[in-house]
Amino acid sequence: MPLDDSRRVSLLLGLLFGLAGLGSSSAAVALPLMGQDLGVDHGNATWAISLYVLFLAVTTAVYGRVSDLWGVRTPLTIGIALMAAGALAAAFAPSFEALLVARVFQGAGAAAVPTLGITALSRRYDGELRGLALGRLAAVAASVSCLGPLLGGVVEHAFGWRAVMALPILGALVIPLLWKALVGEGSGARLDILGALLVAATAGGLVLLIQSPSTGVLVAGVGGLLLVLGTPAVVLRVRRRPHGFLPLAVVRNPTVVRSAAAAAAVPAAWFALLVAVPVVLVDEGWETWQVGLLLVPSAVVALFVPRYAGPLLARVGGATSLAFAGMVASAALLLAALGVALVSSPVLAVSVILVTVAFGVGQPALSASVGDAVDGDVRGVALGVATLLFLVGGSVGSAAVAGLGALVGTANSLAVLAALPVVGLVVLWPEVRRRPLRAALARL
User: Fold this and answer.
1) Least confident of 94-98, 140-144, 149-153
2) CA 117 to each of CA 73, 134, 183: distance values in angstroms, whole numbers, following the listed order
3) Global pTM?
4) What is the set of domains in the chain, with CATH numbers?
């Protein structure tokens, strides 16, 4: 495929990815006014974010398997239509309960973008061209997401919180521009519906349990019950249906498991800072649009990351690139902890820039590692499972700031979270050793 084609497709898919991210990054700044308008306190208003992220996470693997069976074009179109419809319904919701239902559908639709966007690039391009395309996708997605708080603050100031909720509708305008590029059909096999439900329920239990420190005992109980009952049920289903929704070939692939586990630390850092930085600065009297302006440099940096992420991935491989991303994410969290303790906006700005670099390197590295480790017939579901863990990592980051932060303070919660990328590096080390780090760095 020509370079210009890969640039256009990856930029458009990155824009879609970013618009899906706006469902959380821009909506977060609208919560206070939305809660006041609909008669709920701030604690309950946060469910508008929690439910969106929950369904975004648990349905990613579903879209991955669907793409293996039916191709990318139809599921992605349906997902974007569902995301746009959910955003429109949220914008016109007459009550808080109606808004939550709309956010559930919006998250379930937005989940199509991470998995199917990456799958489309992985199927369409190979080698260094694929690495560059995945890098551009991650960069544009990160850039748009970084601009989410600024865009949300400006739109809220001018038009109100309902207009902020409607922003992801713009994703529907991108699909016609991608239509010809979304080629390739699936195998046509039947979808293992029971397996999909079991995986979704178990993953949902994990996300609820992680978020429970900020949402209460009842949520923890429900999450724990789903996790305890769902885990053995999923294991039994995989054994009985080794070629079902969660193929045994994917579950037993050590590269997929290690890469996904290590990569989850990167969005954990990303979401932790996107939550912590606005909270800290707003408490200091900043306006939401001012917080957004502080994040603009990270959005600019995100646009340049692909120039280095693609060549890095081609030279040192996915595992070493993931290790690098994890170390940068850990450094960003430690720096952010210092920035929170000192209430230093420049330090916080630099920490967000660092985590943007980590995200821009880590996300395409995960996709490349997983894509190269499995056969083509299960690549979609493998990427879906990896993306599921990737997004659950984001829930860990936001939960640590909201839950642990309430107990030990935001700065200490960020410092504790900085250990997560180190754990990921330990898990990933067997993969890194396959391509010696010293030799790889010598070629840079």
Assistant:
1) 140-144
2) 10, 9, 12
3) 0.77
4) 3-442 (1.20.1250.20)
